Amino acid sequence: MAYWLFKSEPHKWSWEMQKAKGAAGQEWDGVRNYQARNNMRTMKIGDQGFFYHSNEGLEIVGIVEVCALAHPDSTTDDPRWECVDIRAVKDVPKPVSLSTVKATPSLAKMSLVTSMRLSVQPVTEEEWAIVCRMGGL
DNA sequence: GCCAACGTTGGC
DNA sequence: GCCAACGTTGGC
């Protein structure tokens, strides 16, 4: 099982909207970056991910789960772009902010810090455990 | 809203 | 295949 982090601007697609989709989940469309796409291609059903609010909020607010393998992105005809589906699993009781992540030495190597602009990122098992603990899980 | 960082595009 | 121009992302 692998761990990931999905970024979304809340005014475009928020955690509340994701939760409203329930178990059916939502296509993670609109990604137009090769590295992010490649990350999605390697995802398996049941992989866990953090849901991060970028631009506003700047914090990890929820846990999601991959519920469909990479498939063509329905929002484009360009065959280069694929995406997975994810569904909300649970809230992070105490959202973990970017400033907290930056201030935590053991999280200094998180992609969130080192690859600021990558919208779909891998998270290591250690990082996952640390963030979950800080988030009250 | 600004702007730095960085990914992508396209001319040569 | 290089690199300048351009567009986008995302923190502040």
Automatic annotation (TrEMBL):
It comes from Hartmannibacter diazotrophicus. Gene3D superfamilies: ph1033 like domains. InterPro entries: 5hmC_binding (IPR052181), EVE_domain (IPR002740), PUA-like_sf (IPR015947), THYN1-like_EVE (IPR047197). Pfam families: EVE (PF01878). This is EVE domain protein. Residues 2-134 form the EVE domain.
